[in-house]
Amino acid sequence: MELTQEKQPAKDQLQDKARLWNHALGFIRSMSLKCAIELGIPDVLHNHGKPITLAELATFLSIPPSKTPALGSLMRLLVHFGLFASHSYQGGGEEESYFLTSTSKLLVKEEKACISPLALMALNWTMLVPGHQLGKWFTAGAARETPFDMAHGQGLFGEANVRADFNELFNEAMASDARLVTEVALLRRQWEVLREVRSVVDVGGGTGTLAKSLAKALPEVRCMVLDLPHVVATVDEEEREGVEFIGGDMFEHIPPADAVLLKVWYPPN
Ligand SMILES: C[S@@+](CC[C@H](N)C(=O)[O-])C[C@H]1O[C@@H](n2cnc3c(N)ncnc32)[C@H](O)[C@@H]1O
Q1: Dihedral, 100, 104, 106, 108 alpha carbons, nearest 10
Q2: How many domains are there within the chain?
Q3: Of 21, 147, 170, 252, which is most buried with the most CB atoms under 10 A?
Q4: What is the pLDDT of residues 139-185, one digit of tens each?
Q5: Cα of 29 to ligand 1 centre, how many Å?
Q6: Which residues form the O-methyltransferase dimerisation domain (predicted)?
């Protein structure tokens, strides 16, 4: 039987309130992560090679002294969220120093498994604004319209076509995932299954991370990437590394090839 508000013990109600505030302010978690990546904190901690004090971190990041306490608050939050860890040294004064955890190692740029580009894409305002449309979408959205369509007046790939900044962000996010998958594929010798084919086309292959790795591993195979013209246009001639890039719409034409690759990206669950 449900308890009425009057009968509910005060302690439970406090817990419920705390739970709700946790949800309502949950964006602080993601915005702190975004801020840490944008400032390059994981890279500084990595390059420093030992725990770093707040003052040292502020110097590395060129944060003015007036904002160093705010940087301290950010670090405290990120430690609380498990992204960084901290030591307290009991010297002349008690000084906190920070270091990476196994989670934040995945935010270091030089790590093969770095997910920073994906996090920056997911937390870009372009991806967040549709969330504000969700309620309206349930009641007023057309059947085939997504909250993204409602917010931007077009789909994700249409938006990337007209906004170079978002195009770059999205392509880099996809490339970072492809780098990891490519690494795993190479390690497991997955390309061997393609040794017998003469040509491969990676449909929706983005900026060609996967196809370039394939071309390197199997130089005798003709490797192609089909992607939308605004994506292909971002790949310079000298960056193509033996891969043919074709700008087009896969629903209209797919270049003939012995094998077709179709790699999509979904966040792990
Ligand atoms: C989710 S991304 C995946 C990129 C890449 N395959 C990967 O996994 O890293 C989808 C890709 O498909 C491309 N794409 C979307 N619609 C397309 C279409 N109609 N024809 C060709 N490519 C398309 C996008 O530009 C984007 O690069």
Answers
A1: -60
A2: 2
A3: 170
A4: 987 888 999 999 999 999 999 999 999 999 999 999 998 888 888 87
A5: 29
A6: 21-109
